[in-house]
Design a protein that fits this description.
11 helices; binds zinc ion; four-stranded mixed β-sheet; eight-stranded mixed β-sheet; 23% strand; alpha/beta
Amino acid sequence: MHPKGKVQRLRTAAPAAIADLRGRLTLKTAWLALFMSGLAAAAGAELRVGTGLGDITPPIGTPSAGYGNRRGAGMTGVHDRLLATAMLIDNGERPIALVGVDHLGFTYEMVQQVRQAVADDPLLSRTEIYVGSSHTHAGGGAFLNVPGIGETLAGKYDPAAVKVYVDGTAEALRKAAGELKPARVGLGYGRLEGLNGYRGDWPPNVPTLPDVAVIKAVGTDGSPLAAFFNFAAHPTVLSGANMLFSADFVGYAREHVGRLIGGDVQPVFFNGAQGDVSPRSPGGEDAFARCDSMGRALAVEVKRVWDATPVAEALKIETLKETYTLEPKPTSAGLLLPLPPQPTEMNALVFNDRHAFVSVPGELSCIYDADIKRFGGWLGFEHVSILGLTNDAHGYLITPESWRHMTYESTVSFGGELYGEMIKNTAFALLHALEPEGAYQADRAKPSSILTPAPAPAAAP
Ligand SMILES: [Zn+2]
């Protein structure tokens, strides 16, 4: 039997069946033995999920971020609270936390502050933390300590505002770690046509991706615990004329997901590759009604996927992190970030060998989204999802051709003409290193080795 068939079976196999397969598979090849020992450890421990929520709404009067035409003015009120919502999955081996924040884009430095703020918690100190910014343009500003451009994008820098964002996110994580419950988890996918659209200047008429990814977590009695959902669109249903803090369509989507799934479910939203992707609201009498209808349409699809997604009591989790340094280079308009080289990171997360997620430190073009999904399909993944603006947010990640055509995105793209290609190639390398089967299996136990060529096999005696 081809290994692929067996791996496929494992995805839905109960622990007893996994143990049985292990006995047979370890006799076959070394890489399968390595793979199965990891899974057996996970299968032996109880899968647990915790959820938590924190408030990251800054004081009224704090500027927002995303629209230059507000010119750093303070927001005059709160329409809906800005939230950090966390889902912590602990399979007994590799705990991970996905925290969605209603924010234009947490910087790498802010993510490090979140990690430090929870480092005294025994579980969180060893949990891989992924902070995904929704990119709402009505979130809290004043967080960019960058002379000139920081103030243009996010208003005058205020460390007290940054503390609100970091503390609220840390609070969501602490609650999630404190409320772990035995859980069953499944992954499912849907499509939502017409809710997003391409906004790039070049190339013209690129189709956007309608993909919706859902991670479903329920208790052992089937009661809903957490609904992670992922979709690509700028949360810019509200314009720069709005002066009230809001999560834009994302807040409404979470509310509708909560209502449709019911119980105590905690919805958690991560944006996708939304770099050159606008929202397309089905309509409404005013801006908030348009947010509502968009959020409802997304939630209806999330609920459909939720209902169709089976859950299992074991979850295999593999991750790979690539840390690197962003060297600021002039944008296509000649603007250079007045900053020294910045540390940043990309990650791949793979669940049950078939469900891949790639985190990117900014706003990825839908062109690369399609490239990465296609490449992941070739490797054997059932689906690849992009976790946009995750663990950093340093601008648009676009193709060299778009950059040379001086698209809008290229004027807020700080890694130079070829930076998008580096992001794409790193995504490919991360996926290749975690591919379901193939030439790189022997490298599985060596994290962060993806840029180092594997040693040549020893010559046969
Ligand atoms: Zn944007």
